[in-house]
Design brief:
Elements lengths: L2 H8 L1 H28 L5 H18 L2 H13 L11 H24 L1 H11 L25 H5 L4 H14 L21 H7 L17 H6 L22 H18 L3 H9 L7 H6 L1
């Protein structure tokens, strides 16, 4: 075994738990889908089919050289860590908190930088909200999101510990993609719950860019992005895709971004279309209105 394989073997028990949790969630997702279809509760079966297709492609990509980008990028960064945090029970707790904090800011940036929104909008584009929505993740996410974990490595967390902590934060969010669980009282003030996350998926004006948290919602409360569920949530993005084609779901927004940048009147405006928030227009365009 090479050193990386040995380190993953050291955490094999923890990784196995995550695998079992993933299998449990998959059974839950399939069961909910079958129940909804049989009882007529699933309005758009094409959306469900697309979500499963996107998930299958993602699973295949993660098991190829493409998927290794996530790990290779972090492996190359690890030697430059400022310190080394010992691997103990408390460092696991700190790693999970740090991963959750990292996820909050990664998620917030993905909403506020348009080229990253082109990636993340895949997850938000469905007009339906059920457990299959949790699997509707962009095919190019693995090429980008590892970059946000670099600070955790730089301050001394172990590579595998960082990956497991991040996967835990992501896995947790599977069960909250549902309308079958209502509000949970004081838990909605602390954790990312179904009610809290329904708000995040809303295209209602007051719900846009709210509730970015992964496991804990206290980051949103600290940084002013928390919004409780009040009126009925309208799911999807402000400009609906009106298609269930997985290719369009994954790449249409990229086309819109680059078309705007290509037509921009200057390099500065072109960069603005790429790096400023969705909906941004250059000053010269605003002057014409």
């Amino acid at each position: 075994m090479d050193p990386i394989e040995l380190r993953f073997a050291e955490y094999s028990g923890t990784l196995a738990v995550l695998e079992y949790v993933g299998l449990f969630f998959l059974i839950l997702i399939v069961s909910e889908s079958l129940w909804d279809i049989i009882t007529g509760r699933r309005g758009q079966w094409k959306e469900t089919a697309s979500n499963f297709t996107i998930a299958i492609v993602n699973a295949l990509l993660e098991r190829t050289a493409y998927g290794l980008v996530f790990f290779i990028g972090l492996i190359l960064v690890e030697p430059f860590a400022f310190i080394t945090i010992p691997k103990t029970w408390w460092s696991w707790l700190l790693a999970l908190i740090a991963a959750d904090f990292t996820y909050y800011w990664m998620h917030r940036i993905e909403h506020r930088v348009r080229i990253l929104w082109a990636v993340h909008s895949v997850h938000h584009s469905s007009p339906e909200y059920n457990l299959t929505t949790s699997m509707r993740l962009a095919w190019v996410e693995g090429l980008i999101e590892w970059i946000f974990l670099i600070p955790m490595l730089m301050i001394g967390f172990d590579l595998v510990q960082v990956i497991i902590a991040f996967l835990t934060v992501v896995s947790y969010q599977t069960w909250i993609h549902t309308e079958k669980i209502g509000k949970l009282g004081f838990l909605d003030q602390i954790f990312n719950t179904p009610s809290v996350h329904r708000v995040h998926h809303g295209s209602n004006a007051q719900y846009i860019d709210k509730n970015y948290g992964g496991i804990l919602i206290i980051w949103d409360r600290l940084f002013g992005t928390y919004e409780p569920e009040r009126e009925k949530v309208v799911y999807g993005i402000t400009t609906p895709l009106e298609t269930a084609n997985p290719l369009s779901i994954n790449f249409r927004e990229f086309g819109a971004v680059f078309l705007d940048a290509w037509k921009a009147g200057s390099l500065r405006s072109a960069m603005g279309f790429l790096l400023r928030p969705p909906g941004w227009r250059p000053p010269e365009d605003l002057d014409k209105t």
